[in-house]
Amino acid sequence: MNVRLRSTRVEDLEFVVGAENHPDNCDFVSQWSRAEHEAALSDGNKKHFIVENVKTTEPVGYVILEDVRSPHKSVCLKRIVMTEKGKGYGRETLRLAKRLVFESLKAHRLWLDVKDYNTRAKLLYESEGFVVEGLLRDCCRSRGQFESYYILSMLEDEYFANGKE
Predict the structure, then answer these.
(1) What Rg, from alpha-carbon coordinates, does the chain have?
(2) pLDDT tens digits for 139-161?
(3) What confidence score (pLDDT) does residue 47 get?
(4) 3-state DSSP helix/strand/coil percent for the chain, to nearest 5?
(5) Residue 56 and which of 72, 93, 100, 151 are 20 to 30 A apart at CA?
(6) Which of 76, 62, 56 shows the shortest CA–CA distance to 7?
(7) Using an 8 Å Cβ cutoff, are 113 and 136 in contact?
């Protein structure tokens, strides 16, 4: 493993907001204000992590999980944002997130949405065992245009049978 997850701290939020708003990322993820990220840090139903390079301890991304206390045991991978592309950090981070959700949080389902034009991310999720459940057509308005989102999920039995890394 080249990356690890650690809990996000208030002093990390400049990096988080910068990563989210970077031109390589801003078209693919919704933007939160610093205050929204700060609120997420103290929300017991969310987990906010910095993705660190194991060797340098420098941040290379972040992850947000929502509904971690869901009585339905259905956790949402709200955000996964990487600042260093093409190094495998995104795949490793996704695997760490799956392990956390299914092995530590004991969830039944991990789900996410991805913009229909974010082909790179959708292919990654599918290659890691996520199943497309459907397409929410023109469900969100961003920058004056409607956007569609795919919903993908993985169930715990799928993770333990196929997706465990």
Answers:
(1) 15
(2) 988 888 999 999 999 999 999 99
(3) 98
(4) 30, 35, 30
(5) 100
(6) 62
(7) yes
User: Following DSSP, what letter does each residue of 32-58 receive, concatenated?
Assistant: --HHHHHHHHT-TTEEEEEEEETTT--
Q: Break the chain into its structural domains and give their ranges.
A: 3-163
List all residues 6 or more positions away from 25 whose beta carbon is below 8 Å from its beta carbon. Answer: 19, 81, 82, 83
> Domain 3-163 adopts which CATH fold?
Aminopeptidase (3.40.630)
Residue type, 73: K
Taking alpha carbons only, the member of 141, 164, 143, 139 closest to residue 154 is 164
pTM over 0.85: yes
95 vs 11: CA distance, rounded Å: 26
Instruction: Give tens-digit pLDDT for 16-50.
Output: 999 999 999 989 998 899 999 999 999 999 999 99
Q: What is the DSSP letter of 151?
A: E
pLDDT in tens, 89-132: 999 999 999 999 999 999 999 999 999 999 999 999 999 999 99
* Cα angle for residues 134, 162, 105 (degrees, 5° grid): 80
